[in-house]
Write a structure and sequence with these properties.
This protein has 19 helices and 12 strands. With 474 residues, the chain is mainly alpha-helical. The radius of gyration is 32 Å and the shape is elongated. Bound molecules: glutamic acid (GLU). The site of glutamic acid has 7 residues, from loops.
Amino acid sequence: MMVKTRFAPSPTGYLHIGGARTALFSHLYALHNKGTTVLRIEDTDLERSTPEAVAAIIESLEWLGLHYDEGPYYQTKRFDRYKEVIAELLESGHAYYCYCTQEELAEMRAKAEAKKEKPRYDGTWRPEPGKTLPAIPEGIQPVVRFKQPQVGATTFVDLVHGNLSVQNSELDDLIIARGDGSPTYNFCVVVDDVDMEITHVIRGDDHINNTYRQVNIFKAMNKPVPKFAHLAMILGDDGQKLSKRHGAVGVMEYYHQGYLPEAVLNYLVRLGWSHGDQEIFSFEEMVQYFDLNNVNKSASAFNTSKLRWLNQHYMIEKNPTELAMLLKPFLEKLGVQTETSPEFDNYLTQVVEAHVKRCETLVELAEMVLYLFTDTIEMDEAAKAKQLIPVSKPVLEKLVEILGNVAEWTPANLDAAVKEVTQVLEVGMGKVGMPLRTAIVGRTNSPNLDETLFLVGKERTLDRLGKAIAMIEG
Ligand code: GLU
């Protein structure tokens, strides 16, 4: 059997990080089994679905690098097909018209509530052998109901949870077409899974209750029931359901916060799945090892510091020129006008190489290197108060003199020049390095001095030293 999975988001907003994990697991399962993947947009809820949400979902999946073999299919384009199947089910006696009015249904609900029972349809229009149905009232657009089995239990094997079962007496006759003929959610999902020949349905465990109903529709259509795997929820760091309150929940927010897709995928794969104690997985390794047997039954909690740690790992691992290209939009956001020349790209690559180990996101990297792309650096007040003091003045003046004489601005020459200053003034490296960093970076942490000086460049270095000297009082 050829494995085929699908990801079936409802386009009512951005792609939630939990949805991305479902998409990833469906993908990995298919790829691990040399199967194929389908993207299906479940847009039958016309009031809540928007084209913007569809675009946002597709953009997120592309950013993550999850590409589909088939689709996107849109449910709204398949209404004729749903109607065809409704007609078939009516014909085969698995569905029937129900003419109950809103008032009658409200009355049924009220009765059930009075008896403290679950509100359910009382079967008025359900045909049974020997039963006489009421006379068809005029002026009512009937709904179509699915005839659920009433005795026994509906059972399915869940690849994460094991056997799951519900008494059929708990399931009432689901509406599969509304009065206006439009098909309903649980029904469309089944028709799609049948037509798209889905073998494994991998989705959130909030759908378990739908699955019982869906299993019976597969059977009524006389089609094989796919295998199911329901994934547990993702919780916030505090154990509550992950929501806006916890920070980013939309996938593209992670892009805007400076995460790499490799890090997000690696992070997501470990949310509810494990392979021994391995933490770092390339996409190929995920595909190689992924198995639904090792998926957790219980919810997993989001851990931002782990995501940051992974992001740093992938930033360091990435080719620095590629990382430099990814950094450009983040610099632009800070007001830097980036260029597309080989010289600029080469310079930015060196900047990335010098700083990448010191930060965890592209946003942090952009902020950290901003001093290299501005005429006026921002001064850290504490560093200024501590380093730009009268004793530093002769040091900075000597630096101006000796650095001013460096003919070829290379890291090796700059290293020698700074050492020369310590020797001439007979002071330790700290007495020179700290005020120098403060003067040219605006703070006391930066890469090695020779690299920093090299990247700042001669003209700017001398200019900043001059300004720093002027800031010192007395
Ligand atoms: N459209 C559903 C959702 O976004 C998923 C349905 C399914 O996977 O069967 O929650």
